[in-house]
Each structure stands twice: as C-alpha cells, then as structure tokens.
C-alpha cells in the first residue's frame, strides 16, 4: 500500500512544556504489529511526568502517548486475528521500545498485536480511548502481582475481598471491573461525589477516603488473606494502604508509585508496571486483551470509565490536554480528538 502521511506532536527536548506538531514517522509494522489511524488519544499522568521529570534518558525529539482508539489501516504479516477497517483500542508502548512509531500522539501509530482489542460499534471511540493503559496496569496489579484468577464473563466466587483504593480513578475503574470478573468482592474508596459511579462499576461497599476513620472502617470488613491495591500512587495513599494490609495480617501491596519505605514489616509493596502484560507476562496479555476485554465490551459487561473529557482540535491540542491533567481532574480522563473518524 502507499506510504501513510503521518503527523505527530513532538517533544523537542527534555523538560519542556511545549510540544511541536510536525511530520511524523512513517509506519512500517513488523510481523506482529498493527497500524492504527488514531481518532482519539487519552492523556495519562505518565505524559506530564515524563515531560517534567523523565524517569529515564530518552533520545529527543520524542513522542508521548499510550492510549489510543481508532481504525486499523495496516497489518503485520503474521497478524491473523484482526482485519483492516476494524475499530480498536491500543496500548502504545514507546516508553518500552524507545521507538516513536509506537507512540500515541500521532495520526498513525504502530501497536503490538497483543495490546490491541476490538471494540463494539456501540462504544464511541472517544469513550474507548480511556481504557488501554488502565486495563494493562490493573491487569498487572491483579494477575501478575497478586496472581488472581483470570477474568471471566461467568466468574466463580473466590470468597475473597479486595480493596481498590481510588475506585473512581482510571486504573481504579478498570481494577474494580476486572476484580469482579475474577470472582472477588470489591471494597473501594472514593470521594462522596463518586460513590454512585464506583458502585455502578461493581463495588459492593464504598468508603470516603477523606474520613479520619477510613482505615478502621475498611479493616472491619476485611479478613486475613484479603487484598489491597493502591490505584492512586501517592506517598499518602501508599502509607494508608500499607497500614491497612498490615492490619489484616500482611501480604503483597501493588502500588503505582515506587515503594517509599516505612511500611509495616509484614507488608511487601511492589511497583506495578503497566507494560508487563505485553512485555513479560504474555499469558496475562492474552487472557485480558485478546480474550476478556473484547468479549466483555461486546456483552456490555465492561464499562469504559471514567468518562472522557474531550479536547477537540487535533494534535495541536495535546499540550493543552497534558497541562489540564497536570492541574488535576476527578472521575474524568482527558481525551484528545486527533482525527475525525465517526
């Protein structure tokens, strides 16, 4: 096929808050990659954190972006599960590969097949764009770090409860739904305004994370062997989740921030790598991305939450979206309209 004419929002150098829109890399998928024309791309905390204080060295100019929704335009030679024209979501992993072709903030991105999922026609692309990184991160916490049963449309009860701290967050929204689909009863935290949202995702009990007695309240409904996941990733939430795990006998605590220390001796905090399902634990990627997510979305048993806060205007608006998230949002995800596809 003819070469695709690409455009991208480039980070010209480290530690600058000014993306530059210009010609993007020409997609050339390997045998297991898929080229997606991006309709919408979501903004994640990683984008502004990498812009302000990179976790590691990169060669610049670079392109950010991990969450995309759009239409397949090209397939690698060994890709058999998908076809050109399908509506899909994709988890872009340029921070792993260090290749700008694998980034999300561009008109055409190249994504590994294991991190692509078909979406039903009933799900708007803008809503679908909130899912990729949150699904991968939640899956890593639940199935890599905690070794829970893989999700199913007809789960069997495990008799266990799991605390999802930050239930209305992007990762928390996916974690609640995956945990329920794995046969666990979910206990979550959220601000009072978001309790109904969190219950609609499947949480049986919701506690106000601001309540002074929240640890006591939650510990009273848990037993040794139950689980806790910190989906917020701040020093404060890590400390509170660590205290809660310690109160119920100890165990593994998946966290979204590097372990800070100072936790009870019976608590082992482990950092959750959202790239894991497509990088190391491919059985998790296959179980979640290839099997469960497409089936659950089609059956109406998985919601694309939180709702998107759409920023129209194309690639020129990516920096604006990053700045908006840097200032903070609640129960929403910033989604940039990259191109008009529906």
Corresponding CATH superfamily of the largest domain: Medium-chain alcohol dehydrogenases, catalytic domain
Number of helices: 11
Uncertain segments are none
State the helical fraction.
Answer: 25-40%
DSSP strand content: 15-25%
Query: Largest sheet at a glance?
Result: 7 strands, mixed
Specify the CATH architecture of the largest domain.
Alpha-Beta Complex
Please give the alpha-carbon distance between the first and last residues. Answer: 23 Å
Gyration radius, rounded: 19 Å
Categorize the overall geometry: globular
Q: For this structure, what is the CATH class of the largest domain?
A: Alpha Beta
Output mean pLDDT: 96
Q: What is the succession of H and E elements?
A: EEEHEEHEEHHEHEHEHEHEEHHEHE
**Total beta strand runs:** 15
Estimated structural class: alpha/beta
Characteristics of this structure?
342 residues, alpha/beta, Quinone Oxidoreductase, Chain A, domain 1, Rossmann fold, 2 domains, seven-stranded mixed beta sheet, four-stranded parallel beta sheet, 15 strands, 29% helix, globular
């Amino acid at each position: 096929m003819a070469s695709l004419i690409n455009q991208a929002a480039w980070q010209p150098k480290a530690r600058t808050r000014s993306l530059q829109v210009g010609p993007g890399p020409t997609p050339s998928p390997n045998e297991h990659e898929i080229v997606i024309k991006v309709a919408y791309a979501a903004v994640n905390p990683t984008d502004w954190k990498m812009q302000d204080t990179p976790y590691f060295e990169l060669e610049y100019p670079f392109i950010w972006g991990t969450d995309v929704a759009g239409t397949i335009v090209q397939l690698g030679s060994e890709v058999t599960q998908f076809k050109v024209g399908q509506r899909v979501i994709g988890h872009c992993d340029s921070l792993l590969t260090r290749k700008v072709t694998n980034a999300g903030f561009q008109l055409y991105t190249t994504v590994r097949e294991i991190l692509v999922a078909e979406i039903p026609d009933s799900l708007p692309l803008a809503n679908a764009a909130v899912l990729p990184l949150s699904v991968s991160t939640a899956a890593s916490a639940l199935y890599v770090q905690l070794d829970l049963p893989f999700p199913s449309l007809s789960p069997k009860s495990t008799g266990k409860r799991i605390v999802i701290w930050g239930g209305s967050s992007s990762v928390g929204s996916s974690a609640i739904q995956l945990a329920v689909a794995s046969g666990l009863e979910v206990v979550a935290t959220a601000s009072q305004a978001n309790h109904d949202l969190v219950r609609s995702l499947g949480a049986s009990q919701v506690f106000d994370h601001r309540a002074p007695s929240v640890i006591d309240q939650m510990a009273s409904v848990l037993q040794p062997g139950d689980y806790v996941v910190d989906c917020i990733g701040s020093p404060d939430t890590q400390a509170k989740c660590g205290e809660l795990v310690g109160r119920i006998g100890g165990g593994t605590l998946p966290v979204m921030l590097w372990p800070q220390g100072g936790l009870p001796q019976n608590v082992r905090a482990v950092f959750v790598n959202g790239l894991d399902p497509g990088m190391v634990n491919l059985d998790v990627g296959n179980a979640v991305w290839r099997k469960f997510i497409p089936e659950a979305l089609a059956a109406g048993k998985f919601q694309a939450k939180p709702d998107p806060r759409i920023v129209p205007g194309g690639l020129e608006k990516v920096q604006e979206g990053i700045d908006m998230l840097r200032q903070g949002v609640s129960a929403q995800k910033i989604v940039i309209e990259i191109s008009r596809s529906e």
